[in-house]
Amino acid sequence: MSNRHFVKGGFLTFLLLSASGLVAQEGGRIHGNFSTDAQYYNVDSAIGAVVPAQRLAANAWANLIYTNGPFEAGGRFESYTPPLAGYPAGTPYSGSGIGYRYAKYRQDDLEVTVGNFFEQFGQGMIFRSYEERYLGVDNAMDGIRLKYMPVRGLHLKGFIGQQRLSFANQAVKGPGIVRGIDAEVSLRELLDTNWTSANNLIIGGGFVSKYQEDRDPSLVLPQNVAAWALRANFTTPRWNVYAEYARKVNDPNSRNGFIYKEGQGLLVNATYSVRGFGLSMGAHSFDNMLFQSDRAAPTPFDLNINFLPPLAKQHTYNLPATLYPYATQPNGEVSAQGELFYKWKKGTKLGGKYGTKVAVNYSVAHALDTTRLGAVDDTTSRLGYRTAFLSPGHRRYFQDLNVEVRKRVSSTWEFALTYLNVWYDIDIIQGKPGEAPVHADILILEGLHNFTERNSVRFEVQHLSTREDHGNWATALAEFTFSPHWFVAAMDQFNYVGSEKLEAKGYEALHYPVGSVGYIRGGNRFQVNYGRQRAGIFCVGGVCRQVPAANGLTLSITSTF
């Protein structure tokens, strides 16, 4: 056994022994959870299904957390034997071992964490350490973090460590070192006056830097790269206004062509809400803001120090969510979004007996207005381009206009009708050079019928029409719930192309049926799926990964205690 395995195994053993002793002596608590996804793959040449050498693949995670007063410690065991096809989003995972472990205590407004931790400054524009487990995105820090509140309303954070890169029988760290400090003051907490009891102003700022040794034989690369951000959040009972500006010094890397241009980002959001009415507006501009702790990171998903939130509605319906979702383009974009929500009251002409809800959302993203600099001299060529920061360029990346009307028509029936008009630059967003932008119209009808308080059925009928990409799609879904334990679902996605031009390219009509059965009891949940999975995109929170076509049986189990 290697020294590293011994240290990590010893840490978990020490945690378990200490926890068992403290539970008996001081009344500490142990809680945690377990989850696994296992899939058996079948051959299916019609859809080009991926069939790994090992026909059975499984991902599994088990968390164990111990708490006792101001002390907390935990660890996570992970297993990828082998991982599911297409998982994770970045560098491959393999084997089994400890992927996350930490100890934390609080003493007189000081919190100390050693080991792994997740953290975020503001909206994440200069730093966000987080996990999206089902995407395989995990850039957990491994190091030391301090949080301190010297006076009420003033919150300070500081950390230093390395990021998780991948997993090979243990967590594998990237080569860079990341350091950061952040301060935030809440006037309502600090002043505690009558004015601030209804309104509040929160002001914050952060500074993050990464260190990576320069070993490039031809370029002089900065070994320390810094980024800073300032933010303000004003809230009233009806309004919430947030703004954040970030700047990053020159950061030559493999994603921007090793140019020495500085990066910057601006994000502004505002929401207004009263009973029955809501309005939100947002805009942002990002320029050269990809920030990774390894300048030669294997993929765009690996070792990201920051997170740039997309300004697009995160759809939950199958067709818009998995065919043409949008992800922020960190090297440069200008985006805007607006959403209006209104509910007609019960008893009015449009509200009827139960009221009527309508939501309208529009979002658009463009390339930055840039001017490419010529190779007049080495300095000019290494700056890459000049930017009109807040000005959108001619190239449109994405546009989504969607309208949803939701209405209860009786005590047992409720319906929702949604229309989407989508413009999608598949060349840029999905990396398909030369492919024409997709213009799609999507119509969705959702219904819910409650047979009794415990038994219900929910159904969806979706249709997407386009002459680009793979052509037209239709989806039908039905979910039956028999509370409190059982649910059954069936779905079929039908790609019937509908274009002679696409059919001439060899595209054929295909069905992707899948059936599901689930059982829930207490803290345990079991689900079995069987059918086809089409190749596409799976997204969570604006972060996406490619999913390969597959055919087979899937078992999912989750348990909490």
Structure write-up:
With 561 residues, the protein is mainly beta. It has 7 helices and 31 strands. The strands form 4 sheets. The protein has a 25-stranded mixed sheet that branches. Strands 6-7 form a two-stranded antiparallel sheet. The chain has a two-stranded antiparallel sheet with strand order 8-9. β15 (224-235) and β16 (239-248) form a beta hairpin. The chain is globular.
In percent, how helical is the residue content?
under 10%
Largest β sheet strand count, sense and barrel closure: 25 strands, mixed
Mean pLDDT across every amino acid position: 89
Radius of gyration: 26 Å
Number of helical segments with 4 or more residues: 7
The total beta strand count reads 31
How would you sum up the global shape?
A: globular
Structural class: mainly beta
How would the blueprint of this fold be written?
Elements: H1 3-26, E1 29-41, E2 56-68, E3 71-80, E4 93-107, E5 110-117, E6 119-120, E7 128-129, E8 131-132, E9 137-138, E10 141-148, E11 154-168, E12 171-173, E13 177-186, H2 187-191, H3 194-198, E14 200-211, E15 224-235, E16 239-248, E17 263-274, E18 277-287, H4 318-322, E19 332-344, E20 356-372, H5 378-383, E21 385-408, E22 413-424, H6 426-429, E23 438-450, E24 455-465, E25 472-482, E26 486-497, H7 500-504, E27 510-521, E28 524-533, E29 536-540, E30 543-547, E31 550-560
Parallel strand pairs: 4-11
Antiparallel strand pairs: 1-2, 1-31, 2-3, 3-4, 4-5, 5-10, 6-7, 8-9, 10-11, 11-12, 11-13, 13-14, 14-15, 15-16, 16-17, 17-18, 18-19, 19-20, 20-21, 21-22, 22-23, 23-24, 24-25, 25-26, 26-27, 27-28, 28-31, 29-30
